[in-house]
Specification:
Elements lengths: L20 E4 L16 E5 L3 H7 L5 E4 L6 H13 L4 E3 L8 H11 L4 E5 L6 H16 L3 E5 L3 E7 L2 E6 L5 E6 L3 E8 L5 E7 L8 E2 L10 E7 L3 E7 L17
Parallel strand pairs: 1-2, 1-5, 2-3, 3-4, 5-6
Antiparallel strand pairs: 6-7, 7-14, 8-13, 9-12, 9-14, 10-11, 10-13
Amino acid sequence: MTDTHVKNHGSIGNSIRSGKCILMCAGEFTPLEIEVGDDDIVIAVDAGLKYLEMLGVVPDYLIGDFDSVDESMSDMISEFRESRPDRVIELPVEKDDTDSLYALKFGLKLGFKRFDLYGAMGHRLDHTIANIQTLIYAKGMGAEAYMFDDKCMVFAMCGRETKRFSRGMTGMLALFAMSDSCTGVTETGLHYGLDDYTLTNTFPIGMSNEFDPDADDGEGHGATVTIGSGRALVIVTYEVEKKNKGQCFNEGRP
């Protein structure tokens, strides 16, 4: 494993950092290009190390309990541990935090406020739901966290927040209440509009709403989603080429 990426990221407890913290988790992963900027760090979460190996990306940290790794993974972990032992955090198998949540908390301690999670869906439904709760946890800590795969993007929203999408966006948007209800929900630039609606967690009215690629809010954006109060989950399912996935929001990547 050639060291092409590891950087000095300072100490835990410093101020807010620019860039993003990329977590490669151990769920299902279809290889896709992951952009790693100079100010970013990459954390391999447990067996997610094998996906980074596939992509030729050397992580800055390796975090996990390594309770279910096979022999080939064990060799990768041993190699990484030997080359940079100070960048390996081995967790106990019996603990309250999932490996992904611990890794996100570690990134927060480093000062990051933007997190991209890959390999965070699939395999086991309980793991996927746990990672969705991790998105919501990040939101409560004042950070933005997104789960990506080759088909969709998932993120949380909270009260008094608006997301604006790029003009020409296509695909589907689903909006789910994570709290008992979300009030003041407004959606524009989608096939089904909502205006000051109260969304509840017992009725999935926010499913399968198509983007209108011709939508224009007059300020250079396409579709918009606003939450007045409560917590919500947004799932954007792409019907665009992979290269456009990072251009969902008007400012580029979310």
